[in-house]
Amino acid sequence: MFDSLVEVVNEMGYVGIIFLMFMENLFPPIPSEVIMPLAGFSAANGDLHIILVILSGTFGSVLGALPWYYAGVYFGEERMLRLAKRYGRWMTISCDDVSNASSWFSKHGRKAVFFGRMIPAIRTLISVPAGIARMPFLPFLAYSALGSMLWTSLLTILGYILHTEYAKVADYVDPFSKIVLGTIIGIYIYRLFFVKRNDSIKPPSK
């Protein structure tokens, strides 16, 4: 997997980084913790410019957040709850997940978007309650971009600094990325078939 990612970045350049980060936000089989350090390696090699790498990663990340934001805006909490009740088993999202995310966002507001973009566990999910709460688009875009830029900058610089250990990192990242992918699939199967779900629809949070 490591070699495949390197090939995508090397052949597609900045477009490849945007594409990978966009897909990472829609469905994260390959986390940004793998993508951006690899792009940092390429920048250290002189193939790409580190500033443009960071901007490309940020742009792809923000693009990937928009579909989730607009899903929240379009469906609203009540319809999202109905979708979770009907299709949540396949999406591994319960009614409680939707209600809790909306409640958490209502308490922390814009700070939740900014800091959420730097937390792997909720990077994608934070866009949904932001949309449900009808957070104005421009502030959502600004806070998402700032949080994403800090995160992608950190990962890119890490990869840039570790350039001299490229071969050693390759030996580490390839099995790690396979473990991450296997873990995601395993969690999905576990939640799909073994986790008891609470499909009762609670009133939307105010």
Describe the structure.
The radius of gyration is 18 Å and the shape is elongated. The model has no long low-confidence stretch (mean pLDDT 75). It contains eight helices and no strands. The protein starts with a helix and ends in a 13-residue tail after the last helix. Helix 3 packs across helix 4 (95-108), helix 3 packs across helix 7 and helix 5 (110-116) runs parallel beside helix 7. The protein has one domain (2-193). It has 206 residues and is an all-alpha fold.
Strand content: under 5%
Mean pLDDT: 75
**Number of H/I helices:** 8
Work out the radius of gyration.
18 Å
What best-fitting shape do the alpha-carbon axes yield?
elongated
Order of helices and strands: HHHHHHHH
Say how many strands there are: 0
Low-confidence stretches: none
Indicate how many domains the architecture comprises. Answer: 1
Largest sheet: none
Helix-strand category:
mainly alpha
